[in-house]
Amino acid sequence: MRSNEFNNKIFSIFPLSSTKFSLARLMVRLYEQQYQTWPLLKKNYDALHKVKIRKVRCNNHTVTVQWNPERITSSTANIDKKEIAVRPCFLCVDNLPEKQRAISYRDTLFILCNPFPIFHHHFTICSSSHTVQEFEPNIPLMLDLAELLDSRFTVFYNGPRCGASAPDHFHFQAVPSGILGIENLTADLSGRITEVTMHKATVSLFYNIGCPYFLIQGAEKDNINNHIITIIKELRFLLTNYIDTEPMINVLATFCENQWHIYLFPRAAHRPSFYFAQGEEKKIISPASIDISGFIITPRQEDFETLSSDQIESMFNEVSVPLSMLHTIMKRIDTK
Cβ(8)–Cβ(22) under 8 Å? Predict the structure, then answer.
């Protein structure tokens, strides 16, 4: 039985009895309601009009750097197990801010406006119960959400050891589609190294934004799901020797022109070495899905102003699995 606190947080329920609103439109309505009734959220979304951006040209790509002071808490999140165990979970219903409201999705998820946004209409999609951040069992859920949001929003996942500031509570996030440069780069096949087509889906290996990644495309959900699981199994074998733990990954999902587009970034490290440096060498940048898609978030002004192309290239190299290893995975996929 649901608690009163749970019921008090519900803005709307999806699927609706009426088909008047798509999920994307319902999410926009939630944002409009929260903007009018939640002062903290209004302040932080208004602040997005003042954030600064600049373009940095690297060796073979251009990235966007954003100065966004409100993201300092996320960028410096302590994900040590002992720290996580003693702090209140900020995604659990009993700990949500008084003014925060949610869309209840299929009775298993809450869709929330992220009060510390990177973009306008930035959402967190979290489990309505406290359960760990884990990707494989939730791949079908991500595919369903991407299809429902049909090119309006990009859904993304940060692994518990590479970007999730709440690794103890399962969640996706969603931002408007088309903002991230990676979506345009892959559209014209820029940087594609190799591809394998099988079971009515295509798996490609790309290298066009400073770090290598897989792109899985197709129109049949089961095939897409199976290809993602295959890649994760190969990563687990190469990186962890089949230790029963999730390899470090960031994943983005969109649905456009009746097919899924899944961007999967294998990770070698959570944070680059300059994050742990002292003095002027230190930079508070903690790359997750958005950053490695070519949109780097810098909470501190000094990092925004001084981050160089060489430092960006070094960061991507440090936190990414080497391209040679992903080549090996592509060859193994091609023989299956």
Answer: no
Residue 37 to residue 27: CA distance in whole angstroms: 15
Query: How far apart, in whole angstroms, are the C-alpha atoms of residue 272 and residue 315?
Result: 5
Amino acid found at 113: C
Distance from C-alpha of 208 to C-alpha of 188, rounded to nearest angstrom: 11
Structure tokens at 57: 């040209």
Measured CA distances, 137 to 32, 229, 247, 290 (Å): 32, 10, 14, 23
DSSP notation for 97-146: -TT--EEEETTTEEEEE-SS-SSSS-EEEEESS-----SGGGHHHHHHHH
Q: What is the DSSP letter of 106?
A: T
Least confident interval from 233-237, 240-244, 279-283: 240-244
C-alpha distance from residue 202 to each of 145, 173, 194, 195 (Å): 21, 25, 10, 7
Q: Give the DSSP H/E element, type plus range, for residue 256.
A: strand 249-256
Q: What Rg, from alpha-carbon coordinates, does the chain have? A: 19
Q: Residue 12 forms beta bridges with which residues?
A: 103
Q: What is the pLDDT of residues 92-109, one digit of tens each?
A: 999 999 999 999 998 899
Distance CA 157, CA 109 (A): 15
pTM given for the model: 0.93
Measured distance CA(176)–CA(183) in Å, rounded: 12
pLDDT per residue as tens digits for the range 40-58 = 999 999 999 999 999 999 8
Cα dihedral across residues 160, 161, 163, 168: positive or negative: positive
- pLDDT at position 62 is 87
How far apart (Å, rounded) are the C-alpha atoms in residues 198 and 332?
13
Residue found under tokens 């709307």: 12
**Spatial CA neighbour of 133 closest among 114, 161, 92:** 161
Q: How far apart are CA 305 and CA 21, in angstroms?
A: 43
